[in-house]
Design a protein that fits this description.
The protein contains 3 helices and 5 strands, in the order βαβββαβα. With 109 residues, it is an alpha+beta fold. Strands 1, 2, 3, 4 and 5 form a 5-stranded antiparallel β-sheet that branches. β3 and β4 form a beta hairpin. α1 runs antiparallel to α2. The protein is elongated, with a radius of gyration of 15 Å.
Length: 109
């Protein structure tokens, strides 16, 4: 199934619920995201500045379009407390056509 609307799934992790809610509400109210799922906390393990790090984080799943991506990225960076936030975009190759259309409609209304 094709993705004519150029829908993206953007992933980021934040340190706490307050940041998760702030970013989610900012992105949706500014029409940079149609929907943001705030997931249950998880533990992330990574190397940072040469040190093994374990942090509790809250993942966000953000549905947007390619057209909104750069503004969305800027908004996340502005609201994110990390020096280097994880921001990864994944092209959506398919999905329920009506849902993909809903995402596009939310961002163009």
């Amino acid at each position: 199934m094709s993705n004519p609307e150029n829908i993206l799934l953007v992933l980021t992790n934040v340190p706490d619920a307050a940041t998760a809610n702030l970013i989610a509400e900012t992105l949706v109210t500014q029409k940079l995201a149609a929907c943001v799922n705030i997931l249950s906390p998880c533990q992330s393990t990574y190397m940072w500045e040469g040190k093994l790090t374990h942090e509790n984080e809250i993942p966000l799943l953000i549905k947007t379009t390619q057209l909104q991506y750069h503004a969305l990225q800027d908004a996340i960076i502005k609201a994110h407390p990390y020096e280097l936030p994880e921001i990864i975009s994944i092209n959506v190759d398919g999905g329920l056509p009506e849902y993909l259309q809903w995402v596009t409609t939310q961002l163009s209304a």
